[in-house]
Amino acid sequence: MARGELPRNLHRAFRGLRRPQCERATQSLRGSLCPAAPRCLSTTAPRPAEIVESQENFTAAPPIDFEQQGKGFTGKRLLKTLRIVPASPSYFSAKPTFTDDYISLLALLRRNATLPTIPKAEAPKVIWKTIDQYRVMTNEPVRNMRYHNMLHLLRRLNCIHPGLMPQEVRDAMLRYKKPSQPGDIKANPAVIDELGRAKGVGRRKTSSATAWVIEGEGEVLINGKSITSFFGRLHDRESAVWALKATERLDKYNVWGLVSGGGVTGQAEALTLAVAKALMVHEPALKPALRRAGCVTRDPRKVERKKPGHVKSRKMPTWVKR
Amino acid sequence: MPPPPASPWPLLQLRRVCRLSLDRPASLPVDTRACLFARPQTAKTACFSTSPARWANPSPKKKGLVAAPKRGTRTLNVKRGKRASGQSTARPPAVGERKAQRKRVVLSNNNALPVPGLVDLDKSNALSDDIRGHVMGIPDLAVDALRAVDAFKPTQGWRLFRRPATLIRTETARLAGLVRDVQAPAEGQARATVRRILTGDRLSGKSTLLLQGLAVAWLQGWVVVNLPEAKDLVNGHTDYAPLPGSRPAQYTQDTYTASLLSQMVAANSALFAATRVVTKPTLPVPLPATATLKQLAELGIASPEASWPVFVALWAELTHPGRPPVMLTLDGLSHIMRESDYLSADVKPIHSHDLTLVRHFVDHLSGKVPLPNGGIVLAATSTSNAPSSPALDFSVLLAKARARNAHPSHTPTWNPYRVVDQRAMECLANVDTLNVSGLSKEEARTIMEYYAQSGLLRAKVDEKLVAEKWSLAGMGNVGELERTSIRLV
């Protein structure tokens, strides 16, 4: 597009207007490293080329035809007759990308303002880019407030009725969405295999457990041992089959579990999760009951790491006088 | 005018030095300077040494040099009874009191409710199939006999109930069937000797099954002989002596044998008192003519050094034709399948099978010596107090494979690179096992109802509760069932 070429045109146009002190400053700054590329318009690092899909159609001025326009003029007088129009309307702001985006979104909304909308609560869930991500993308120090205003526009666009959402709005919004959206990743539905087994995997602390649940009489084998020989404490035994006990299914299913890693309690609670997940394959309607019993959510807590200068993760060394 | 008297101070010092040098041996160096400047009122012992004075008055600890208290710790010592010296003023328990406390067997609990309709075992119903799956009381006389042979263990839950009662489970019924078969063999056949090793998980009721077997046998009028802990035989806690004339050397345990004799007399008193000695034993102590078995045994009890010959004589009497069958049991089999803790005269460990009592039991278990009048030899394994005995483990695996007629490719084979206890392997070569597994749900329900009737389980015993406890107890492991439903540990 014309934007990429603009600096070159301008350079050419302004070559004669360069002020001497600017040149001196760049020379003194850059030294002898790259003396062939003097720059004085921009004070920031060069911006990588961006793909701007949804900019408003803004036409730059046609290239200057010196033969036609400059009849009878030469040198500085010729230049005085020229009027330069940049490709971006916000070119003369320090960094134009955000303003361009904002203006284009405003124009988009203006065009589509009459389309029917749905309430905000019913609009599809979208996770927009954070301001930091936007800053990195545009390489521009955008202010919080301004980005916030742009998000208002985006949310308003998102509220257009999904059935009537124009393609250009969809494409425009894509630029501001995070790469992964909620509901993108869908787990494969678990199945009961041909032998009637449902598999579930659970983790807790550093233990991980796999449980196969099958319809039966309430027999439990863990790593090939009976539950009493594997878990000495009654509390751990109850934890391991808690999903079945809380839903009163202990005498309806058999459990065959494999556990590894961690300690006894972690293994028992990893089994809780594994058995609950396998049970939900057999009876998906039990999910609310299992959630109430605390068998659905993985407990993310782990041992906090030790830090340098501390005795343990948070404990500081004993205070010593001198 | 006489000259003014000199100051008395240097004179005194000089005199002191002279006396010191007179008192001390000349070789001792005397620091005269220290003495010269020493004040007369300091310690009189030895003015050049400071240690006695320091001993007498140890210098007080400098204050203010202790570290500041840790943040979050209490500076006020509120722990009572924890003296700085760490010694309590209470008297330590007397010798043997702690062990007595540990080994005490309590068989009744007056706070538990008597169970209505509890039927006692007796001679007629003990062998019938009708009592299978029921809880049966153990009659008082049988309790006395079983207590005499130490069949009740402190780890079992007898102390929770009003009186001893036991569930006749599948394995008990099977054992009762063996008793019945021995007692009434088929036409024209002699009474058999049945030998079994009881195996099973921890707390699955192996020792209790021994007790049930002893109870059933005692009720049928059998001779019951129990070695309650194999560990006591081999852990080197009893006196031992080489058996004269034995080659290779065997060792008797006289005190233990004497106490075993007294247990036998107590448990089988009626039979022993009524039976007269018919063989002519040669004993180191005089035996009156027409003595009873009880008198014979009491000879060994009274003089432990004669206890082993008396035991041999008594066993010969018991195996004499026409006498009742014998129930011979032992708990903790793996202890006697290895070297014992005793040492021989040339300081080599004695193999357990060289101890005469162990030898006696092992010969009967292996089938080397049969019981002429029939009988049952039972050995229970233990999973909580068991030294590793690869030979026993392997033999049990082999016996189980044999029992299910496993294909030779599926029978276990001994790893030839492992060292094997050959004597243990030989004696266990053809002994069958009796596996004690978990209770069925019906049996679990029966015993839980018994708990509830005893007032120990305060819940409605229904399908749901039984299923839950059965699962949590590892598919009906009876000890775990008791722990989960009564003891709650």
UniProtKB/TrEMBL annotation, chain A:
Keywords: Ribonucleoprotein, Ribosomal protein
InterPro entries: Ribosomal_Su5_D2-typ_SF, Ribosomal_uS9, Ribosomal_uS9_bac/plastid, Ribosomal_uS9_CS, Ribsml_uS5_D2-typ_fold_subgr
Any one GO MF annotation of this record: structural constituent of ribosome
Region (Disordered): 299-322
Entry GO terms, CC: mitochondrial small ribosomal subunit
Ribonucleoprotein among keywords: yes
Biased composition range(s): Basic residues: 303-322
One GO BP: translation
Similarity remark: Belongs to the universal ribosomal protein uS9 family.
UniProt-listed NCBIfam families: PRK00132.1
Protein name: Small ribosomal subunit protein uS9m
Organism of provenance: Lophiostoma macrostomum CBS 122681
Automatic annotation (TrEMBL), chain B:
GO annotation, cellular component aspect: mitochondrial small ribosomal subunit
Region (Disordered): 75-102
InterPro entries: Ribosomal_mS29
Claim: Mitochondrion is one of the keywords in the record: yes
Coiled coil: none
Keywords carried by this UniProt record: Mitochondrion, Ribonucleoprotein, Ribosomal protein, Transit peptide
Subcellular location: Mitochondrion
One GO MF term attached to the UniProt entry: structural constituent of ribosome
Protein family membership: Belongs to the mitochondrion-specific ribosomal protein mS29 family.
Protein name (record): Small ribosomal subunit protein mS29
Organism the protein comes from: Lophiostoma macrostomum CBS 122681
